[in-house]
Design goal:
MetI-like fold; 326 residues; two-stranded antiparallel ribbon; mainly alpha; 76% helix
């Protein structure tokens, strides 16, 4: 009996060692999990690399340049200035003028784009044979080049342009000889008009996408309860499109502070720099005067301002969302 038991013990140990030597399902499962875990990163890697090269690296380089008297021509070495460029910006009256103009542009273009974009989206929400045509017509300015529309509006607001002809010779509301682009406020009005005209279609498309998520049963229930259009909009539609509203407001404010092409092509910052915005002033310092250090400092300051404004907006919308839902 002892011999048989000993043989069985030896056989069991051998089988155990052979089983341990074979790759089990756990080891194969671990390999598949590893591949599954790496697959998303492989898909994300090209975009992440492009983002790092095109966005992150230039931002880091701009911050570095803002602390130097940066030289790009000749053999001179860039001189470290510390915070001198930032102190210069704080003391620069023209910088504050350009920042004020950027704020004016933002304040006079963002609200009209939101109101008109939402109004057009509500009008085009209903199905009709002409709905696709009107959507294309309202969205057409969005895909049109900024250069093209800026030059178009420059000629419209010229001394003998269509605006003066319409207001003066046709409607007799003005004398017809207004130099729109020769004064600060009239030039800013023309630039703001272009910004509103070009941006309404973009806001409309975002709001249209948000309106697709409005629960129809809630609208029908509100109608049965006797709610009018304004009450249905406030109690049902607005809470449903609140995330779209947040996205539109934040993106339009960022775009308002970053206005550049229309100002550069319509007025060039004139007359005497009175219509300069931050980006045109930064462009002038960097590429006209080759003062890349100061231009980089201006860009960093603008980035910080836009970031702070965006954070405040997110906080206000988060606090306001409870009141809207109520």
């Amino acid at each position: 009996m002892s011999t048989i038991a000993r043989d069985q013990t030896v056989t069991g140990r051998a089988a155990g060692l052979a089983s341990a030597a074979r790759p089990g399902p756990r080891r194969r499962l671990t390999g598949s999990r590893l591949r599954a875990g790496l697959t998303p990163y492989l898909f994300v890697a090209p975009g992440a690399i492009l983002f790092g090269v095109m966005i992150v690296y230039p931002m880091v380089q701009a911050v570095q340049m803002s602390f130097f008297d940066w030289k790009i021509v000749g053999s001179a070495t860039s001189e470290f200035l510390g915070l001198d460029n930032y102190i210069r910006a704080v003391q620069d009256e023209h910088f504050w003028l350009s920042l004020t103009n950027s704020g004016i542009y933002m304040l006079f273009t963002v609200p009209p784009q939101i109101v008109l974009g939402l109004l057009v989206a509500l009008l085009l929400k209903k199905k009709s044979p002409a709905q696709p045509l009107f959507r294309v017509l309202f969205y057409l300015p969005v895909v049109t080049s900024w250069v093209v529309v800026s030059l178009l509006f420059k000629y419209l607001f010229a001394d003998r342009g269509l605006i003066n002809f319409t207001l003066g010779d046709f409607l007799h509301l003005t004398s017809g000889d207004t130099s729109w682009l020769a004064g600060r406020w009239t030039a800013l009005a023309a630039i703001c008009a272009l910004g509103v005209w070009k941006g309404v279609g973009w806001a409309m498309m975002i709001f249209l996408a948000g309106l697709q998520g409005v629960p129809q049963e809630l609208e029908e229930a509100a109608t049965v309860d006797g709610a009018n259009r304004w009450q249905r909009f406030r109690a049902v539609t607005l809470p449903a499109i609140w995330p779209a509203m947040l996205f539109v407001v934040v993106m339009l404010v960022i775009g308002g502070f970053n206005v550049f092409t229309s100002v550069l092509l319509m007025t060039g910052g004139g007359p005497a720099g009175q219509t300069d915005v931050v980006l045109t002033y930064m462009y002038q310092q960097a590429f006209s005067f080759l003062d890349f250090g100061y231009g980089s400092a201006l860009s960093v300051i603008l980035t910080v301002i836009v970031f702070i404004v965006a954070v405040i907006q997110l906080r206000l919308f988060r606090d306001r969302s409870g009141e809207v839902l109520a």
